[in-house]
Amino acid sequence: MLSRLVDRIEGAALRTAPSAAARLMGALPSGALPALQRARFRRTLRLASERAPFYRDQFRRRGIRVDTIEHPSQLGDFFTTGDDLRTNPASAFLTGRPDTAFETTGTTSAIPKRVFFSHGELDAMGTASAAALHLLGVRENDTVLSAFDCSFWVSPAVARSALQYLGCFHVEAGKIDPQECYLHAVHYRPSIIFGEPSWLVRFAQVARASGTWPVKLLLGGGENMAETARAEVERVWQAPLYLNYGQTEAFGSLGLECRERAGYHRNDLHFLFEVDGADADGWGELTYTTLTRDVMPLIRYRASDITRLVNEPCACGLFAGRLARIRARADEMVVCGMGNVGPWVFDELLRGVIGPADEWQAVVGSDGQLDAIELSLETDGSRAVDGLVRDNLRERFPDFWKNLQMELYSLRISPVPPGSLRHGRKLRRIVDRRDQVKATAPG
What we know:
Strand content: 15-25%
Mean pLDDT: 86
Distance between the termini: 67 Å
Low-confidence stretches: 437-443
Helix content: 25-40%
Radius of gyration: 23 Å
Shape: globular
Number of helices: 14
Oligomer: single chain
């Protein structure tokens, strides 16, 4: 009964204005959300097992009786992975007729993941996103500039769907050079700016040199962002920058920061979240199950991101739980002579050494018997970065410094020209090449 009640509340909310939708969803009775998630999960599981060959075959082979499953955790060691989407035809996952498709371009794999949706699913995600953007302060009289990459990427489509419900004036620039974009944007003077974090940093540099205008807020999505870079963008525009967390496979937003910026508020109405392999503090790999998809549902999909679930109430008062800020990609967590390291370690190590717009990449290789880390930093060559990095290592990470002093690994700092590291949408921050070295070694 509770799940049917919430269905009716949600249906009413999504047919009304974003402001009313936010109030209605905040009025959910206690215990209603778990009941709704359970009902939607069981429906999704039945749909996938009956119509999607991949799930039907997997469940039969593993002896899983879907009529006995109440929660994804009862599926044991079964997960859906990105490799499953790459190596199987799309028809293996489809449960309905698709209207559109998007691809995970710009990833570290040469083979994209293709994900299919219906117009109705796009519309539903747009209404939910409109309510979330309204909570951040986006209003009908705002002018929104969107610089999200339109090449097979879902973010522009979701943004477009959300903004039509908010009634904003919307300028879709696409991901063009920030200098060129500025020449167009200055004529519209947008009060809201959307873009990838690295692009927003470059755009802020252009605006700092050429002039700014009043901006209410900025929204970044598509990659993680160091707090130093966020602070620089906010200083230039004198406006807050909020981060969205999503994936093409999720069809947009899995979570969005509120004004407290203490993690991403989860989209619990449309997804059921778990963390696999959690450590003592709850950090592990995020997995999610779609709850409202009729075309290509995903069961226990591995997001490949390291985070934890935050269920304590947020100071903003929003009913939805949170995901902690993403620490790293699962394939960028490296255990080496330095220690257990991820991108957040190097972000802190480089704080005060390189500018917020500068890129870096750490490559872990082998130097004889030792692990060898080569840290490439974009710099104009005007600073002696090697000494600064080593000073930060000693002061901020004494355990990692001790390992270096004990010669458990070697560290090489390599300055490179600005703009030389990033060649696609995403830059892989930590690359482990030790297996490649072993594979090519003689004998």
